[in-house]
From TrEMBL:
Keywords: Flavoprotein, FMN, Oxidoreductase. Residues 2-362 form the FMN hydroxy acid dehydrogenase domain. One of its GO terms (molecular function) is oxidoreductase activity. The keyword Flavoprotein applies. Its cofactor is FMN. CDD domains: alpha_hydroxyacid_oxid_FMN. It comes from Streptosporangium jomthongense. This is Alpha-hydroxy acid oxidase. SUPFAM superfamilies: FMN-linked oxidoreductases. Belongs to the FMN-dependent alpha-hydroxy acid dehydrogenase family. Its EC number is 1.-.-.-.
């Protein structure tokens, strides 16, 4: 029996994938910042959100389809930007993009993708591009132009990595990229630091520190909007005041995210921050959510808390590691089946009804 045949939920996929990956790569995917308490808190706080089902709603089926960032999606989910996917499978981002396209959800290509944006665009459905702000502004402009030529429909600017957090698992492993995995969107040679082993240090973090601009400000966001016609999404917003400034700066959406617990270990859990951001933007831009999503019920929790949709990360890497495109597709299929079931059990015929569900916090 194929390993994927034994998976009936995301937890199964993670377990099976963990058995297949080399320990250092498994730790790179699974690990978090500092003591990893932000990861634990993301999950614990999501579990505290309990939904209040409605009955006798005459709901005929449960339609998971809707609009997401000016486009349509088969469910309110997009693939989050994730670096170096060829660590998990030789097909990397190509397999993930194909799976997303078949599932009818957007795929977000990362600046630190291990496949060039042009090759991803050739196999993708709806495509977004995630930008890390580089010290070389000429490279930023080049990435913007390439994303637009590739047909990307949104630009996702990640703003919560002024510096890469210390990730103890990677430091203990002295984690480096294998020679076969490169930052394919950057000029040849600029990612060499990620391949140089250093005792008790992450070479990937070292490369990030060298390449990324750590003094990004609101003026830079205005500059960015002046150099692209794509709708801009700000990823990594937790403070309601920052969300208001983002709206005033003209962004199309914000992503409430603590980077999946991979940055500040003491950061507020994303689900705790979500209602305050939703209230602050007051419908003036879309609010998306990520960090800790592991099931269709989690998607419904985020919708009930006011999110327009969620970004899904680690579970898809586990699926990719387990069985390439088929494994990533399985994770998306599981999520949609779970979301539809949760909607039926709470009396929600569509996403509009889901966004008006009552919740109780344990």
């Amino acid at each position: 029996m194929n390993a994927a045949d034994a998976a009936v939920c995301v937890a199964d996929v993670e377990r099976l994938a963990g058995d297949l990956l080399p320990p250092d790569i498994r730790d790179f995917v699974a690990g978090g910042g500092g003591d990893e308490s932000a990861q634990a808190a993301n999950r614990a706080c999501l579990d505290r959100v309990r939904l209040v089902p409605r009955v006798l709603t005459s709901a005929d089926g449960a339609d998971t389809a809707g609009r997401l960032l000016h486009g349509t999606a088969a469910m309110p989910v997009a693939v989050a930007p994730m670096a170096y996917q060829r660590l998990c499978h030789p097909d990397g981002e190509l397999a993930m993009a194909r799976a997303a396209g078949k599932a009818g959800v957007p795929f977000t290509a990362a600046t630190l993708s291990s496949v060039p944006i042009e090759e991803i665009a050739a196999v993708a459905g709806t495509l977004w591009f995630q930008l890390y702000w580089l010290r070389d502004r000429g490279l930023v402009l080049d990435l913007l132009a390439r994303a637009e030529r590739a047909g990307c429909t949104a630009l996702v600017l990640t703003v919560d990595v002024p510096v890469p957090a210390r990730r103890p698992r990677d430091m203990r492993n002295g984690f480096t990229l294998p020679a076969s995995v490169v930052a394919a969107n950057l000029p040849e040679g600029t990612g060499s630091a990620a391949h140089v082993p250093m005792p008790h240090e992450s070479a990937v973090a070292s490369h990030t520190g060298i390449m990324f601009e750590n003094t990004l400000g609101w003026d830079d966001l205005a500059w960015l909007r002046g150099h692209t016609g794509l709708p801009v999404v700000l990823k990594g917003v937790l403070d309601p005041g920052d969300a208001v400034r983002a709206v005033e700066a003209g962004v199309s959406a914000v992503v409430v995210s603590n980077h999946g617990g991979r940055q500040l270990a003491g950061a507020v859990p994303s689900i705790v921050a979500l209602p305050g951001v939703v209230e602050a933007v007051a419908g003036r831009c879309e609010v998306l959510f990520d960090s800790g999503v592991r099931s269709g019920t989690d998607v419904l929790r985020a919708l009930a808390y006011g999110a327009a949709g969620v970004l899904l990360g680690r579970p898809l890497l586990w699926g990719l590691a387990m069985d390439g495109e088929a494994g990533a597709g399985l994770v998306l299929d599981l999520l949609r089946a779970e979301l539809r079931e949760a909607m039926l059990l709470t009396g929600c015929a569509d996403l509009s009804a889901a966004r008006t569900l009552g919740t109780v916090l344990l």
